[in-house]
Amino acid sequence: MASAVVHYTAAAATDRGRKRSSNEDAFAISVEHGIFLVCDGMGGAAAGEIASRMAVEEMLRLLANRDPAKPLAQAAGEAVRAANEAIFSRSQRNARLRGMGTTLVGLLVEDGRALVINIGDSRCYRLRNRILEQLSVDHSLVDELVRAGRMTPADALHSPLRNFITRALGTEREVTPDIFAFEAEPGDLFLLCSDGLTRELPDPLIESLLGADSPLDELSARLVSAANTAGGNDNITCLLVRAA
Ligand code: CA
Protein backbone atom coordinates (compact mmCIF):
# COMPACT_ATOMS: atom_id res chain seq x y z
CA MET A 1 0.00 0.00 0.00
CA ALA A 2 1.41 3.39 -0.96
CA SER A 3 1.76 5.62 2.06
CA ALA A 4 -0.34 8.74 2.30
CA VAL A 5 2.21 10.70 4.31
CA VAL A 6 2.72 14.05 2.61
CA HIS A 7 4.83 16.03 4.99
CA TYR A 8 6.67 16.18 8.27
CA THR A 9 7.00 18.84 10.94
CA ALA A 10 9.56 18.84 13.73
CA ALA A 11 10.68 20.64 16.87
CA ALA A 12 13.27 19.97 19.56
CA ALA A 13 14.31 21.04 23.03
CA THR A 14 17.60 20.45 24.80
CA ASP A 15 18.76 21.31 28.29
CA ARG A 16 21.86 20.58 30.33
CA GLY A 17 19.71 19.35 33.23
CA ARG A 18 20.15 20.22 36.88
CA LYS A 19 23.43 18.47 37.70
CA ARG A 20 25.76 18.86 34.72
CA SER A 21 27.76 22.00 33.99
CA SER A 22 27.67 21.56 30.21
CA ASN A 23 25.44 20.01 27.56
CA GLU A 24 27.12 17.21 25.58
CA ASP A 25 23.95 16.39 23.62
CA ALA A 26 23.51 17.70 20.09
CA PHE A 27 20.70 17.49 17.58
CA ALA A 28 19.96 18.43 13.97
CA ILE A 29 16.73 18.95 12.04
CA SER A 30 16.38 19.23 8.28
CA VAL A 31 12.72 18.96 7.33
CA GLU A 32 13.73 19.73 3.74
CA HIS A 33 15.99 16.67 3.54
CA GLY A 34 14.02 14.48 5.95
CA ILE A 35 16.90 14.19 8.42
CA PHE A 36 16.45 14.20 12.21
CA LEU A 37 19.36 13.38 14.54
CA VAL A 38 20.15 13.22 18.25
CA CYS A 39 23.63 12.52 19.63
CA ASP A 40 24.82 12.18 23.23
CA GLY A 41 28.57 12.69 23.48
CA MET A 42 31.04 11.18 25.91
CA GLY A 43 34.67 11.85 26.74
CA GLY A 44 36.75 13.94 29.12
CA ALA A 45 36.97 17.75 29.16
CA ALA A 46 34.98 19.11 26.21
CA ALA A 47 35.53 15.97 24.09
CA GLY A 48 31.94 14.73 24.44
CA GLU A 49 30.59 18.01 23.11
CA ILE A 50 33.00 17.91 20.20
CA ALA A 51 32.10 14.30 19.32
CA SER A 52 28.32 14.86 19.39
CA ARG A 53 28.56 18.10 17.41
CA MET A 54 30.86 16.53 14.81
CA ALA A 55 28.47 13.59 14.49
CA VAL A 56 25.36 15.67 13.79
CA GLU A 57 27.22 18.03 11.44
CA GLU A 58 28.89 15.23 9.45
CA MET A 59 25.73 13.12 9.24
CA LEU A 60 23.64 16.11 8.19
CA ARG A 61 26.14 17.20 5.54
CA LEU A 62 26.64 13.70 4.13
CA LEU A 63 22.95 12.78 4.08
CA ALA A 64 21.73 16.12 2.72
CA ASN A 65 24.17 15.73 -0.19
CA ARG A 66 23.53 12.03 -0.80
CA ASP A 67 23.11 10.55 -4.26
CA PRO A 68 19.31 10.43 -4.70
CA ALA A 69 19.67 7.28 -6.81
CA LYS A 70 21.16 5.43 -3.87
CA PRO A 71 18.88 3.49 -1.51
CA LEU A 72 18.41 5.42 1.74
CA ALA A 73 19.70 2.57 3.93
CA GLN A 74 22.90 2.39 1.90
CA ALA A 75 23.41 6.16 2.09
CA ALA A 76 22.79 6.02 5.85
CA GLY A 77 25.33 3.21 6.34
CA GLU A 78 27.94 5.08 4.31
CA ALA A 79 27.32 8.34 6.22
CA VAL A 80 27.75 6.52 9.54
CA ARG A 81 31.04 4.99 8.40
CA ALA A 82 32.37 8.38 7.24
CA ALA A 83 31.25 10.21 10.40
CA ASN A 84 32.79 7.47 12.53
CA GLU A 85 36.08 7.75 10.65
CA ALA A 86 36.09 11.56 11.02
CA ILE A 87 35.56 11.45 14.80
CA PHE A 88 37.93 8.55 15.36
CA SER A 89 40.78 10.06 13.36
CA ARG A 90 40.39 13.43 15.09
CA SER A 91 40.59 11.69 18.48
CA GLN A 92 43.75 9.88 17.35
CA ARG A 93 45.42 13.17 16.38
CA ASN A 94 44.71 14.94 19.68
CA ALA A 95 45.56 13.35 23.05
CA ARG A 96 42.93 15.43 24.86
CA LEU A 97 40.23 13.97 22.63
CA ARG A 98 41.42 10.34 22.84
CA GLY A 99 38.49 7.98 23.46
CA MET A 100 35.77 10.51 22.65
CA GLY A 101 32.60 9.18 21.11
CA THR A 102 28.88 9.66 20.90
CA THR A 103 25.60 7.87 20.59
CA LEU A 104 23.62 8.46 17.43
CA VAL A 105 19.94 8.00 16.84
CA GLY A 106 18.47 9.23 13.59
CA LEU A 107 15.18 9.22 11.75
CA LEU A 108 15.42 9.57 7.97
CA VAL A 109 12.31 9.97 5.84
CA GLU A 110 11.57 9.97 2.13
CA ASP A 111 7.83 10.39 1.54
CA GLY A 112 6.29 7.56 3.52
CA ARG A 113 9.47 5.51 3.77
CA ALA A 114 11.22 5.90 7.09
CA LEU A 115 14.38 4.56 8.55
CA VAL A 116 15.83 4.58 12.05
CA ILE A 117 19.60 4.41 12.53
CA ASN A 118 20.95 3.68 15.97
CA ILE A 119 24.26 3.34 17.78
CA GLY A 120 24.28 3.45 21.60
CA ASP A 121 21.50 4.16 24.09
CA SER A 122 19.75 7.24 22.74
CA ARG A 123 16.31 6.15 21.55
CA CYS A 124 13.69 6.46 18.87
CA TYR A 125 10.06 5.97 19.86
CA ARG A 126 6.91 6.10 17.80
CA LEU A 127 3.49 7.09 19.13
CA ARG A 128 0.86 5.57 16.84
CA ASN A 129 -2.81 5.42 17.83
CA ARG A 130 -1.77 6.68 21.30
CA ILE A 131 0.48 3.64 21.84
CA LEU A 132 4.18 4.28 22.45
CA GLU A 133 6.66 1.84 20.95
CA GLN A 134 10.46 1.94 21.20
CA LEU A 135 11.77 1.42 17.66
CA SER A 136 15.50 1.35 18.48
CA VAL A 137 17.28 -1.25 20.58
CA ASP A 138 19.73 0.05 23.20
CA HIS A 139 23.36 -0.93 22.84
CA SER A 140 23.99 -0.95 26.56
CA LEU A 141 25.43 -3.60 28.82
CA VAL A 142 22.37 -3.79 31.06
CA ASP A 143 20.05 -4.04 28.07
CA GLU A 144 22.10 -6.92 26.69
CA LEU A 145 22.06 -8.65 30.08
CA VAL A 146 18.27 -8.23 30.26
CA ARG A 147 17.82 -9.59 26.73
CA ALA A 148 20.03 -12.57 27.65
CA GLY A 149 17.86 -13.21 30.73
CA ARG A 150 20.73 -12.50 33.12
CA MET A 151 19.27 -9.37 34.71
CA THR A 152 15.69 -8.29 35.43
CA PRO A 153 14.44 -4.99 33.94
CA ALA A 154 13.87 -3.74 37.50
CA ASP A 155 17.48 -4.45 38.51
CA ALA A 156 18.70 -2.88 35.27
CA LEU A 157 17.15 0.48 36.25
CA HIS A 158 19.45 0.79 39.26
CA SER A 159 22.46 -1.20 38.13
CA PRO A 160 25.88 0.46 38.48
CA LEU A 161 26.58 -0.99 35.02
CA ARG A 162 23.93 1.15 33.36
CA ASN A 163 26.39 3.75 32.12
CA PHE A 164 28.20 1.26 29.90
CA ILE A 165 27.22 1.39 26.28
CA THR A 166 28.41 -1.40 24.02
CA ARG A 167 28.51 0.57 20.78
CA ALA A 168 29.43 4.20 20.12
CA LEU A 169 30.24 6.39 17.15
CA GLY A 170 33.89 7.44 16.95
CA THR A 171 35.49 5.27 19.64
CA GLU A 172 36.71 2.50 17.32
CA ARG A 173 37.99 2.37 13.78
CA GLU A 174 34.74 0.73 12.64
CA VAL A 175 31.16 0.63 13.88
CA THR A 176 27.99 -1.04 12.68
CA PRO A 177 24.70 0.81 13.18
CA ASP A 178 21.33 -0.82 13.57
CA ILE A 179 19.08 0.22 10.70
CA PHE A 180 15.31 -0.37 10.82
CA ALA A 181 13.14 0.46 7.81
CA PHE A 182 9.37 0.88 7.99
CA GLU A 183 6.46 2.87 6.55
CA ALA A 184 5.40 6.05 8.32
CA GLU A 185 1.67 6.73 8.55
CA PRO A 186 -0.18 10.04 8.84
CA GLY A 187 -0.53 10.87 12.52
CA ASP A 188 2.67 9.07 13.57
CA LEU A 189 4.65 11.02 16.16
CA PHE A 190 8.34 10.15 16.52
CA LEU A 191 10.49 10.99 19.51
CA LEU A 192 14.29 10.96 19.32
CA CYS A 193 15.88 11.47 22.73
CA SER A 194 18.97 11.09 24.86
CA ASP A 195 19.04 8.92 28.00
CA GLY A 196 18.69 12.05 30.15
CA LEU A 197 14.98 11.79 29.28
CA THR A 198 14.44 8.04 29.45
CA ARG A 199 16.28 7.52 32.72
CA GLU A 200 14.06 10.09 34.43
CA LEU A 201 10.68 9.29 32.88
CA PRO A 202 9.10 5.84 32.57
CA ASP A 203 7.65 4.99 29.15
CA PRO A 204 3.98 5.25 30.29
CA LEU A 205 4.59 8.85 31.38
CA ILE A 206 6.29 9.70 28.07
CA GLU A 207 3.31 8.10 26.30
CA SER A 208 0.79 10.22 28.17
CA LEU A 209 2.77 13.45 27.71
CA LEU A 210 3.06 12.79 23.96
CA GLY A 211 -0.66 12.10 23.74
CA ALA A 212 -1.53 15.75 24.46
CA ASP A 213 -2.85 17.68 21.49
CA SER A 214 -0.22 20.45 21.58
CA PRO A 215 2.27 22.01 19.17
CA LEU A 216 5.54 20.08 18.93
CA ASP A 217 7.66 22.84 20.47
CA GLU A 218 5.40 22.86 23.53
CA LEU A 219 5.46 19.06 23.74
CA SER A 220 9.26 18.86 23.58
CA ALA A 221 9.64 21.62 26.18
CA ARG A 222 7.17 19.79 28.43
CA LEU A 223 9.16 16.53 28.18
CA VAL A 224 12.41 18.30 29.08
CA SER A 225 10.77 20.07 31.99
CA ALA A 226 9.28 16.79 33.30
CA ALA A 227 12.74 15.15 33.17
CA ASN A 228 14.20 18.09 35.11
CA THR A 229 11.43 17.84 37.69
CA ALA A 230 12.16 14.11 38.04
CA GLY A 231 15.83 14.79 38.79
CA GLY A 232 17.55 16.30 35.77
CA ASN A 233 20.62 14.17 36.44
CA ASP A 234 21.89 14.32 32.88
CA ASN A 235 21.62 16.42 29.72
CA ILE A 236 18.15 16.07 28.18
CA THR A 237 17.31 16.27 24.48
CA CYS A 238 13.92 15.59 22.86
CA LEU A 239 13.31 15.88 19.13
CA LEU A 240 9.77 15.34 17.87
CA VAL A 241 8.73 14.62 14.29
CA ARG A 242 5.10 14.38 13.21
CA ALA A 243 3.93 12.81 9.96
CA ALA A 244 0.82 14.29 8.38
CA1 CA B 1 23.48 11.17 28.47
CATH topology assignment? Phosphatase 2c, domain 1
Structural class: alpha+beta
- Please state the second-level CATH architecture: 4-Layer Sandwich
Task: Give the overall pLDDT as a whole number.
Answer: 95
Question: What is the molecular shape?
Answer: globular
Q: From the alpha carbons, calculate the radius of gyration and give it in angstroms.
A: 17 Å
Domains, number: 1
Question: If helices are DSSP runs of H or I spanning 4 or more residues, what is the number of helices?
Answer: 7
Q: Biggest sheet, open or closed, and with what strands and sense?
A: 6 strands, antiparallel
Instruction: List unreliable stretches of 5+ residues.
Output: none
Secondary-structure map with pairings?
Layout: E1 8-15, E2 25-30, E3 35-42, H1 47-64, H2 72-93, E4 101-102, E5 104-110, E6 113-119, E7 123-128, E8 131-134, H3 141-147, H4 153-158, E9 178-183, E10 189-193, H5 195-198, H6 203-210, H7 216-229, E11 236-243
Antiparallel strand pairs: 1-11, 2-3, 3-4, 3-5, 5-6, 6-9, 7-8, 7-10, 10-11
This protein binds calcium ion.
Describe the structure.
With 244 residues, this protein is α+β, with helices and mostly antiparallel strands. The protein has a single domain, classed as PPM-type phosphatase domain (Phosphatase 2c, domain 1, 4-Layer Sandwich). Helix content is 32%, strand content 27%. The strands form 2 sheets. Strands 2, 3, 4, 5, 6 and 9 form a 6-stranded antiparallel sheet that branches. It has a 5-stranded antiparallel sheet with strand order 1-11-10-7-8. A hairpin with a 2-residue loop joins β5 and β6 (113-119). α1 (47-64) runs antiparallel to α2 (72-93). The longest helix is centred in the middle third of the chain and has 22 residues, at 72-93. The two termini are 17 Å apart. 47% of the residues are buried. The model has no long low-confidence stretch (mean pLDDT 95). The protein binds calcium ion (CA). Calcium ion binds at residues 40, 194-196, 234-235.
